[in-house]
Amino acid sequence: MRVSTSHLQQLTIFTTVLTGGGIGTMYYLQQKKFSQSDYHQLALQKLEDCPVAMENLGAPPLKVHNIHLTDRYNRVDPYTAQIKIPVSGSKNGGYLFTTSIRDLDTNNL
């Protein structure tokens, strides 16, 4: 049984679009999971509580950008987290480096 070239092209385009959409969805869900985590929220809260850092950034408003998932600095396991959060304000931008260790007794960061 022969398959026409146009059908193969359509199948290739469909598979490419479906795969790209799946990868995009997974990337979005990973970003959402990172931004809702305790270690991410606590790090940003500490940054917002530091008036010198906020003044140097030109914040508020503080803009928090997506974490680069391929960055080797970003590592998370059940008891430790090491992440690099891109932030910016109206004057300047940079990275918020954070390391969190979960207390085994109280299960708090």
Automatic annotation (TrEMBL):
<feature type="transmembrane region" description="Helical">
    <location>
        <begin position="12"/>
        <end position="29"/>
    </location>
</feature>
<dbReference type="GO" id="GO:0005743">
    <property type="term" value="C:mitochondrial inner membrane"/>
</dbReference>
<keyword id="KW-0812">Transmembrane</keyword>
<dbReference type="GO" id="GO:0032981">
    <property type="term" value="P:mitochondrial respiratory chain complex I assembly"/>
</dbReference>
<keyword id="KW-0472">Membrane</keyword>
<dbReference type="GO" id="GO:0033617">
    <property type="term" value="P:mitochondrial respiratory chain complex IV assembly"/>
</dbReference>
<keyword id="KW-1133">Transmembrane helix</keyword>
<protein>
    <submittedName>
        <fullName>Cytochrome c oxidase assembly factor 1 homolog</fullName>
    </submittedName>
</protein>
<dbReference type="Pfam" id="PF08695">
    <property type="entry name" value="Coa1"/>
</dbReference>
<dbReference type="InterPro" id="IPR014807">
    <property type="entry name" value="Coa1"/>
</dbReference>
